[in-house]
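Re: the pair you flagged

First of the two:
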Amino acid sequence: MRIEELKNNRVNDFIKYCKKHRAELDDSFLYEEDLQSFEPTEENPTYIVMNEQDGIVGAVSLIMDEYHRSGNKARFRIFHTEIESFEVYTLLMKAIMLHTKELEKVFLFVPFENRKLSEVMEGLKFNIERYTFVLVREDREVPKFHLPNGYEIKKLQPGNEETWCAVRNPSFAKLKGSETPITPGMVKKMMSDDDHIEGGAMILYHGDKAVGVIRGTVDEYENAPIMNIGPIAIIPEYQGQGLGRVLLRASLHFAKEKNYKRTILCVNADNNHAKALYVQEGFEQVEAVTCYKYDIHSTNVEI
């Protein structure tokens, strides 16, 4: 057995390994559309575990894009080995941490069902940062929505990137996991990503003032297409007026127009108000995951 940094000649084998094991893991970045353009770069440091036959039996990969680095953090794309050995996980952790010296934290999402991986995380001195629920809405009728007088929903257009940020950032400033502000450049890139749906990103205006945003993107769940809804954001001074429900229904109607039979979204476990809204609108919880956090400079663990 040996651990080595992933090179371009083994990328296809790495992708096959990710697909093979994604059902055991948080699969947010392990689907075809997420992996088809994957390259082992500074933004995607990746290591693999090789057996004596030169086959991949383990892998670790971090997402260190502009958004995550601006918050001094990184997120694991995958952290897994077929060898049931804490030592192998420790060696993978030691290798990947060489790329995190300028960061403060790294995050890993683990499904509740994967107790073995949770035990590994706890052994490596990861701490529970939060819990997240995944909710799915099956194909069913979408209730009508009515905009209050003076309100209008418009499609996000090139040139409106700053407006999007001006709504999204204060809305999420206290939301665990999403508190890092985004930039107009990130929004511009978002609009050119493969998962972007033309017209799926919407801005809610009250007169000339932007007060809410919502976005629907291409996703996959249970090997079938699905539209992912998020972010759903209302600026603080306009919250509690039912505008989030209006935006959600507008996005659900958009999904119908685009022939998506199901929609999916995520919500933090401590956001009871938001979860209650989604359940009222026909979503059902299908998964629960634990977000583990590793504090790079304060965690006292030998790796």
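Second of the two:
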Amino acid sequence: MEDLTGRRLVVVTGASSGIGLAAAVHLACRGDQVVLVGRDPARLQAAAERVRENSGERPELFRADFAILDDVRRLAERLRAAYDRIDVLANNAGAIALQPLRTVDGFEMSIQANHLAPFLLTNLLADRVGRVVVTASGAHRFGALDPDDLNKPLRGYRPMGAYGTSKQANVLFAAEAARRWPDVASYSFHPGVVRTRFANDSRIVAFGMRFMPFRSPEKGAETLVWLANQERSRLINGGYYVDRRPRRPLRKAADPQLAARLWAASVKAVGLGD
């Protein structure tokens, strides 16, 4: 049984700013031992200082670029060496590309950074993780996932289409993880439209969301923190949540056959054994 009253170890990816940082601050103030994962060392240090100022404790920092799968493999090795148990893995890191980009691993940037990298990390840590929380998005409605062609968005590229496809993958991944790993609680959630550095970096996204109601990162992180804290008996394993309530995602993100196909394609893409 999980101990939700004592001090837990929580790993938060994409923790340098936005939702990830807000969640890390809240969890650290709760008394959890928080581990921050981010790409930029300077921003990671600044995030650690903010956590320390709010909670009184300085978190551990791990640098990794999810656009490089070897970085993810090294991150998993370092986390395994450092911790025997990870109570909560918050897969929050995200990216959106304004133009068609391939990573060094040969994949469209959004599908790798948002899905394949956290898929790989979670698989490499699965025997030590108690709970997985995935930052998905209502943008999964724009997804057109084809497990047989993960690079399909590169043709006729549209940033929100590629991003939505990766978010569709997030929802399917959490649901399939719950089916394959019944001892590991897995959830995905939509944080709302959050005013963060992530949106500000994308002029297209910022323009498209100009007239939408923005949330603060703290508000956007509420469901992540809630999913990390709730007793398992009160949650739907593999469920998708919005504003701390279960919601059924669109059919294309709730298809168990598609989820199984995505899992198999992802295993092959990142070089994992069956």
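The chain has a mean pLDDT of 92.

-B.
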